[in-house]
Every structure is written in structure tokens, then in C-alpha cells.
Amino acid sequence: MKELVEVVAKALVDNPDEVVVTEKVDGRNIVIELHVAASDMGKVIGKQGRIAKAIRALVKAASFKDNTRVDVEIV
């Protein structure tokens, strides 16, 4: 899941070198934290959070077959 979020985020931002994705595993729950440059924050969140919701939906669909719960936090 970490790689999926990283690829999508790097495609969206102007500074792909500053994209950092960390993953914390707690049993069947996974928290993915996405760190981007301050100037790219709006591009990752999108208008009314549409892009952030789309990223979360994509990760949720990908994690469905693994029977895990994945949360994506944009920091």
C-alpha cells in the first residue's frame, strides 16, 4: 500500500523528491502517513478534499483483498 500512495503522490506534486510515505502496522490496521512539501499540499488534497478522498478510496479498494483496514493521513 505504501508504494501505491507514493506513486500517486509523486505524480501529483511539483516536488516529487520531497514526498515521504511512512507506514505503521498495528495488527490488521495500517496507517499510512503522506508528507509532501507545503507548496504541494493543495495539489494532494484538492478542492474540497476530492483528491484526498480518491487516494483513500483507491487504497481502500486495494486493501480489500488483504482483509486489512488502511487509513491514509496527509501530514
Helices and strands in order, then pairings?
Elements: H1 2-12, E1 20-26, E2 29-35, H2 41-45, H3 50-63, E3 69-74
Describe this structure in words.
There is one protein chain. The protein is α+β, with helices and mostly antiparallel strands. The protein has a single domain (2-74), classed as GMP Synthetase, Chain A, domain 3 (2-Layer Sandwich). The protein has helices at 2-12, 41-45, 50-63; strands at residues 20-26, 29-35, 69-74. Strands 1-2-3 form a 3-stranded mixed sheet. The model has no long low-confidence stretch (mean pLDDT 94).
User: Between the first and last Cα atoms, what is the distance in angstroms?
Assistant: 17 Å
**What is the tally of beta strands?**
3
| Helix count, DSSP H or I runs of 4 or more residues | 3
Helix content: 40-55%
Low-confidence runs (pLDDT<50, min 5 residues)? none
Q: Note the beta-strand portion.
A: 25-35%
Q: What is the CATH homology-level superfamily?
A: K homology (KH) domain
Order of strands in the sheet with most strands = 1-2-3
Which word captures the global form?
A: globular
Number of domains: 1
Q: What profile does the largest beta sheet have?
A: 3 strands, mixed
CATH architecture: 2-Layer Sandwich
- Report the C-alpha radius of gyration, rounded: 12 Å
Order of helices and strands: HEEHHE
